[in-house]
Design a protein that fits this description.
Elements lengths: L1 H25 L5 H14 L8 H23 L17 E4 L6 E4 L2 E4 L3 E4 L9 E10 L2 E9 L12 E5 L3 E5 L4 E3 L3 H18 L5 H35 L3 E4 L3 H4 L6 H7 L1 H15 L3 E4 L22 E3 L6 E3 H14 L11 H9 L2
Parallel strand pairs: 7-10, 10-11
Antiparallel strand pairs: 1-5, 2-3, 3-4, 5-6, 7-8, 8-9, 12-13
Helix pairs in contact: 1-3, 2-3, 4-5, 5-8
């Protein structure tokens, strides 16, 4: 599998170099189909590419095409474009069979991969649906296979129990019901061990076996943090979609928020964007609606509609108009719920629950 991975990385880097040279010397461009047509000539020049299934090399060129499409999209949008980069040995970790049954299939209890062989596989759960693609990934603790499948559309849930969620740093999330989810701070808790592992890497001689072992240990430490964070978020998302429908969340500009260096590490540790994605996928499987609402000012206004400006050091919300005294994050979650339901501030959330839920779902 390492040989297949290196071949795909070679084709990926060639695809970037080919486009760069065409524009630099000839002021012309190419696309996925143009590069794929030259692939047969590339195989004649580099014979080791013939030992890899053609679809793997084509999928590598497809990644190049997606990288350049994203690059041009960012240029047009006025964002920092970030030209596609060449991939080093440790920065290209997967290859994809884009068509199940053509180069990849189950052979009894093993997975058959064309020009690689029969691979022992352990399925941690049964596969539901029709398999479409197969991606082999290299991670710090071994090789993994990811199947993409087509499943039947989920039936929309019929129960109605709307809730608003306000994510934060002091607490991971506060719900409009008053419940708080504590922030486990996975990175902060593992930071000391990560520092020790990083120092070991920096002290080893580059290119040595001791450095490679130290790098692998560091990768395992980071992987442990990532997996514990993802496991926590999956459990919370599963619990929320079983209790609430619809669920209203803030449409946060996380990229802009991490530019504040005082909170960048804590925001990355909380990983709000990943939680939003996991919550959406879990809700889709359960037939529950997750709706994003405008985030501006949710912490600076009361449920009654009165403006209550406060900085981050003030953790208790006190409204001079209605007299509400409550945790600021819980109040923000209630404001998110009100906005999501499309109701006037100060109106009872349960009085128009069914009609306003249908209106919000059409946003």
């Amino acid at each position: 599998m390492l040989a297949a991975l290196d071949a795909c990385r070679f084709v990926y880097n060639w695809g970037i170099e080919d486009r760069k040279n065409l524009w630099g010397y000839c002021h012309t461009s190419t696309d996925f189909y143009g590069q794929m047509g030259y692939l047969k000539h590339l195989k004649c020049e580099h014979l080791f590419l013939k030992d890899v299934h053609a679809h793997l090399l084509q999928s590598a060129l497809r990644r190049v095409d997606r990288s350049f499409q994203a690059f041009f999209r960012r240029v047009k949008a006025g964002e920092t474009p970030g030209y596609p980069r060449f991939k080093g040995r440790d920065w290209y970790d997967s290859f994809t069979f884009p068509e199940w049954g053509n180069g990849c299939a189950f052979d009894g209890k093993r997975l058959f991969l064309s020009k690689i062989g029969r691979v022992r596989i352990v399925l941690h759960r049964s596969i539901v649906g029709t398999i479409k693609t197969c991606t082999v990934k290299r991670q710090a603790d071994g090789w993994f296979v990811v199947f993409s499948v087509i499943v039947a559309d989920s039936v929309p849930s019929t129960f109605q129990n709307p809730a608003g969620i306000d994510v934060g740093l002091k607490t991971f999330a506060a719900l409009s019901t008053g419940e708080k989810i504590e922030n486990p701070r996975h990175l902060r808790m593992a930071e000391q061990g990560l520092k020790i592992a990083q120092r070991k890497v920096s002290k080893r001689k580059k290119g040595s076996q001791r450095r490679r072992r130290a790098v692998q240990h560091l990768q395992l430490e980071h992987q442990r943090v990532q997996r514990s964070r993802k496991s926590f978020q999956f459990m919370q998302a599963s619990r929320l979609v079983k209790k609430f429908n619809p669920i209203f969340v803030e449409d946060l500009n996380i990229r802009g928020m991490v530019k504040n260096h005082a909170f960048a590490k804590s925001i990355s540790d909380a990983s709000w964007g990943q939680f939003r994605s996991i919550l959406s996928h879990s809700a889709e499987s359960a037939g529950v609606a997750v709706i994003a609402v405008k985030a501006h000012g949710t912490s600076q206004v009361c449920v009654c509609g009165n403006a209550v400006p406060k900085n981050l050091s003030i953790r208790v919300h006190r409204c001079s108009s209605c007299g509400l005294v409550e945790d600021r994050d819980v109040v923000s979650a209630k404001v998110i719920l009100k906005r999501g339901l499309g109701m006037a501030f100060g109106e009872d959330a349960g009085s128009k629950r069914h009609s306003t839920t249908r209106e919000a779902a059409g946003l």
